[in-house]
Amino acid sequence: MRRELLAESQKHDAWKLLREIPFIGPIRAALLIALLQTPHRFRTKRQLWSYSGFGIETHSSAEQRFVQGELQRAKKPASVRGLNRNHNHELKNVFKSAATVAASKAGPFKEFYDALVAKGIRPEMARLILARKMAAITLTIWKKAARFDAQHLKPQTA
C-alpha cells in the first residue's frame, strides 16, 4: 500500500515541491496531497490552520454596552478557549509529527524552535507555533509553486 501511495503521489507536480521542505518526507508529502487535494481551497493560512486543527478559538460576550444612554464597544478582550476541535485529524498529525521531529533535529526549523524557547515560550507552545509555521510554508510553496527558502522562517512572521 505504501508503494502505491508513493507511486500515485509522484504523479503530482506538487510532490517534488513539498519534498523540498525539511522534514516533509515522501510519505508526508503524499499524505498532504491526498488530504488537501489542492491548496486553492484555502485563501489564507488561517483557513488552513483551522482545517488542520491549529486555529485558535476565542469567545466573547457583551461586546457592546450602554454608557450614558449611548451604545459603545466594551473594552473587555475576547477570552481564548484553545484550539478548534472540528478539524482533520490526519492532517493535524502530519504537521504535528513533522514539527516534533523538526524541533529535535538540526536544521532551520530547529533554530526557529530554539529561538522561541529562548524567548520564554513553553516548549509545547513553541511546537504548536512551529507546526503552524510549517503549514503556512507548505501552503505558500504549493500555491506559488516556489522553492523552500529558510527566509520564510523570519521570527516576525510567526
State the helix count: 7
Average pLDDT rating: 89
Task: Report the span from N to C terminus.
Answer: 37 Å
Return the domain count.
Answer: 1
Unreliable sequence segments: none
How helical, in percent, are the residues? Answer: 40-55%
Categorize the overall geometry. elongated
Draw up the topology in text.
Elements: H1 2-9, H2 13-19, H3 26-36, H4 45-52, E1 56-59, E2 64-67, E3 70-73, E4 79-83, H5 89-104, H6 108-118, H7 123-144
Antiparallel strand pairs: 1-4, 2-3
Commentary on this structure:
By secondary structure, the chain is mainly α. The protein has one domain (2-56, 86-157). 53% of the residues lie in helices and 11% in strands. It has helices at 2-9, 13-19, 26-36, 45-52, 89-104, 108-118, 123-144, and strands spanning 56-59, 64-67, 70-73, 79-83. The strands form two sheets. The chain has a two-stranded antiparallel ribbon. Strands 2-3 form a two-stranded antiparallel sheet. Helix 2 (13-19) crosses helix 3 and helix 6 (108-118) runs antiparallel to helix 7 (123-144). The longest helix is centred in the C-terminal third of the chain and has 22 residues, at 123-144.
